[in-house]
Amino acid sequence: MTTLLPGDDDTIVAIATAPGRGAVALVRLSGARAIPIARALGAFGRLAGADVVPRRAQRATLRDTAGVVMEDALVTAFVKPQSYTGEDVVELAIHGGLVSPQRVLTACVAAGARLAQPGEFTRRAVLNGRMDLLQAEAVADLVDARTQSMQQQALAQLDGGLSRRLLALRDEVIHLEALIAYDIDFPDEDDGPIAPARIGNAARALLASLEALLDTVPRGAMVRDGVLIVIAGPPNAGKSSLFNALLGESRAIVTAVPGTTRDAIEALLDRPGGALPLRLVDTAGLRDTDDEVEKLGIEVSGRYLAQAQVVLACGASPDDVARTMEAVHDRTMATVIPVHTKWDLWEAEHATAQVDSVMVSAESGAGLTDLLAHIDDTAQRRAPDSSHDSVIITRERHRVGLTTARDELAEFVSVWISGALPAPVAAVHLHTAREAIAELIGSVETEEVLDRVFRDFCIGK
């Protein structure tokens, strides 16, 4: 993405709502000329001295630069620095649809604005100190959130939870650097004025804090993308019926013909109450076949099994379940839950039989609650909620930065305790760790980092 930093008269404009038919659309202006451009369209009256009342919606008739009426709008001005971007911002709430928003956008450009790049409003907010880089990413996560848990996590990050944690960690690194600098300044003292053990203990405590934060990465992945649940078994084992029953809607075709599911079908199950979202996958039946298309579907099943976090090994009888367990054993590292999918039919003939499986009936819904409880317990064991203040890592950029800081700090602890390097050289590891944390927050504002963060933003945000 080409970097365009705001200048004295660099004012941007974008349609901030989704395109298409809708009741209301929002056109947003930001920059030094936002208010004059809006006034040129009649937003505040065309007289230069017309009052602009910040944060008060005003009704206005918008006209293009030729004086032709375009829209009946509600106009709200946000005067710098008390705005989203830290600049003067004007929001024009107009009728939705395809024509009106585009027409108002075109008029704004004709009056002197330029089209905003993806994420440029939020980028300006970061550059003007209205939020840090972590909070900017939270804005994108809010827009992209597919589940309640991801939305809640994004809100916590937007509120500054992760920022505060990382700032505290950075301050601890700075404190360590200060202790070493003091130690270097007094080389003639016996062991220096700061006991080496004190520095070593502080570094180990900081290392433990970084590792605790990194321990949340598996849970963060589940919050962001859902726990990958693969439903596996032979053809006609009730996999698609179970898939639909768990979702509560018909997403997969259910027939008595073996081999109906030729490809994997995915759906996200989001539940209230803080439960992790489940990414359910209905896969092709596992069997030997000469059908080339079905073979491709089974290959896809194998790839999902290799990535799965939980596998539901399905069967219409205990023998089928056992065969499925054996079939998936060498294909996955996931936790495998045996599931008897047609318990209502089998029970009628084997009422006294003991079955070492979760018994469910997609037809009646029996056992589904127990199955979900098993899945939740398994997910909790694979990614325990070790964070006491709801701060978890959900982005790869954060994981990479924290891993760098952790590795540098671990190296510092090693050389400090062993005395393998002189203090000034050992302190280089602390400096690198601090820079890695600072880059996450945005204290080190390189264009490459900013470009990487904002490249996937939507226009108008």
What is this structure, in a nutshell?
The two termini are 15 Å apart. This protein has three domains: 12-131, Probable tRNA modification gtpase trme, domain 1 (Gyrase A, domain 2), CATH 3.30.1360; 144-216 and 391-441, Four Helix Bundle (Hemerythrin (Met), subunit A); 222-382, 3-Layer(aba) Sandwich (Rossmann fold).
Helix content: 40-55%
Shape type = flat
Distance between the termini: 15 Å
SSE string, helices as H and strands as E: EEHEEEHEHHHHHHEHEEHEHEHEHHHH
Commentary on this structure:
The protein is α/β, with parallel strands linked by helices. It folds into three domains: 12-131, Probable tRNA modification gtpase trme, domain 1 (Gyrase A, domain 2, 2-Layer Sandwich); 144-216 and 391-441, Up-down Bundle (Four Helix Bundle (Hemerythrin (Met), subunit A)), CATH 1.20.120.430; 222-382, Rossmann fold. 46% of the residues lie in helices and 14% in strands. It contains 16 helices and twelve strands. It has a six-stranded mixed β-sheet with strand order 3-4-5-2-1-6, with helices on one face. A six-stranded mixed β-sheet has the order 8-9-7-10-11-12, sandwiched between helices. Strand 8 and strand 9 form a beta hairpin. Helix 4 packs antiparallel against helix 5 and helix 6 (161-185) runs antiparallel to helix 15. The radius of gyration is 29 Å and the shape is flat. It starts with 11 loop residues before the first strand and ends in a 7-residue tail after the last helix.
Characteristic terms for this protein:
about 450 residues, alpha/beta, Gyrase A, domain 2, Four Helix Bundle (Hemerythrin (Met), subunit A), Rossmann fold, 3 domains, 6-stranded mixed sheet, disordered N terminus
